[in-house]
What we know:
With 250 residues, this protein is mainly beta. Helices cover 2% and strands 48% of the residues. It has one helix and 19 strands. The strands form three sheets. Strands 1, 3, 5, 6, 9, 14, 15, 16 and 18 form a nine-stranded mixed sheet that branches. The protein starts with a strand and ends with a helix.
Amino acid sequence: MRFTLVMVACAAAGHLAAAVASATPQTVLSCSFNDKPIDQPIGTGGAEVGEPDFVSAGFPAVVRLGPFPSPCLELSDNIPTIGYVRFGFLGDLEATTGTATVTAVMRFQQRDSFLLAVEGGDPAIYVAQLSFLDTGDLFYRSAGGLPMLVGTYSAGTEYEFVVHLDVRPDPAGGTTGTCSVLVNGVPLVTDEPFAATTGISSVRVACSADANTTGKICMDNLAVDVDEGVTSIDPAGDSGSWGRIKASWR
């Protein structure tokens, strides 16, 4: 069974000092790890080179060949604190309106405590997250909501996930919306409301601190595509052109 996470988000525009509007779908994150050295720690060069922009100190995030047929990123729960990798978007962009699609292939080598979250802002605030417990339980939580048990997972298995977020402006400030989660086409969460204060600018994958320090998770083909109508913030204040931003990835 294959695990592909797909998160689709529509976000409301805020006050933009500098913005770039995409007319057609554009990729703002693509991490296949195929060009990375095997059995070496992943770099932190960011989306421009298909890497995370942050790895927790001492957290083992190593490129491996296996269990997938192509190189993947292996994360190990063997430090006494929460360890994570964060993947920001190309050019430090933040999707604030329109749609965005996050995809990833994942396999849990053991049942342990893991987290997969779509976030925004600095410091990051989660918009939607999936928590995998060492009991095999799978919990969902959205910004402003409470954790809810939505399913289970097994070790040594690949899964396909689809998560849809519909984000709208909140007259009181921030954004509100709904989220739906499907696993292998079966709905686990349907139109669950959330309230966020940011757009979408990063994906976080974490191993939680617990007594069991043997858990490993493998991830491949992490990508984020923004669809037409998406406006992205350039924090540096230099909006430029979308072509210039894409060119920086080459």
